Amino acid sequence: MKLSGKVAIVTGGSRGIGMAVATTLAENGANVVITSKEKSRLEKASEKIKNSFSVAGDIRIIDDVQNIVKKTIERFGKIDILVNNAGIFPKVKPLHEITESEWNEVIDVNLTGQFHVTKTVIPYMMKNGGCIVNVSSDAGLKSFENFEADAYTASKAALVMLTKAWAIEYAKYKIRVNCVCPGIVETDMTRPYLATEADRAMADAEHPIGRIGLPKDVANAILYLVSDDSSWITGAILPVDGGAVTR
Ligand SMILES: NC(=O)c1ccc[n+]([C@@H]2O[C@H](COP(=O)([O-])OP(=O)(O)OC[C@H]3O[C@@H](n4cnc5c(N)ncnc54)[C@H](OP(=O)(O)O)[C@@H]3O)[C@@H](O)[C@H]2O)c1
Predict the structure, then answer these.
(1) What is the pLDDT of residues 79-121, one digit of tens each?
(2) How far is the CA of 138 from the centre of ligand 1 (A)?
(3) Domain 7-186+214-237 fold
(4) SS3 label, residue 9
(5) Which residues line ligand 1 (CB under 6 A)?
(6) Active-site residues: which are they?
(7) Residues pairing with 35 in the sheet
(8) Does an H or E element contain 67, and which?
(9) Domain map of the chain by residue range?
């Protein structure tokens, strides 16, 4: 199997894209540590994913992140793969209506959270190499009409540039860093925007391939980026979006 003997951490592994990623990596032989905030949901997810182990924590809090990494090392002795997937999507509103606390909440999870996790994991990868995949978004690559989610856009665009910076900075340690930018994927995050048939049809039409994505579509791309099939790829920003950003 592609990932036999590998140890992976997937943040936001309790549901949606993260759960599909954790399941796919485990199906390909990896031992997977899933993390997220809500312990009961996380434990239920872990029961469904073979070869998985869960550690709850809030990625905004560095002590929680250090605990997740400590527990992973105690159990498996190393970390080969990190998928920075946890994220939140704010209520869509124009810039002049966004409050300071709404702005900070998104930046704290989607950007500072990824910084906390990556800076804590990287020293364990510096000995034997590793693979990191950041989950950004089409919103980090392009402005969309009627999509005023400025803190989200800023956080996801920052992840795109951090991917390139970390790829260059850590290539000498054989650590590859890549990024996926999903279009609209059906998860708890997007379900409120897909409530009616008309909403769904509009969302499908945003994607030239003619449909929105499934968590598995993103998981398959991430599997490629963390396997040896992509061993000469680092710093890549891969839209996984049925062509939405290319339009
Ligand atoms: N769905 C889309 O259309 C789409 C498109 C582009 C990019 N993305 C990105 O893909 C990633 C996953 O999205 P999704 O749609 O799968 O979302 P989701 O179903 O809402 O799941 C989000 C995950 O992130 C975790 N999380 C949120 N805040 C956290 C925190 N402070 N600390 C630790 N974990 C936290 C959640 O944990 P709890 O269960 O504990 O809340 C959950 O596991 C996000 O980064 C999102 O921005 C999604």
Answers:
(1) 999 999 999 999 988 889 999 999 999 999 999 999 999 999 9
(2) 15
(3) Rossmann fold (3.40.50)
(4) strand
(5) 11-12, 14-18, 36-38, 41, 58-60, 85-89, 109, 113, 135, 137, 182, 184-185, 187-190
(6) 152
(7) 11
(8) helix 62-76
(9) 7-186+214-237
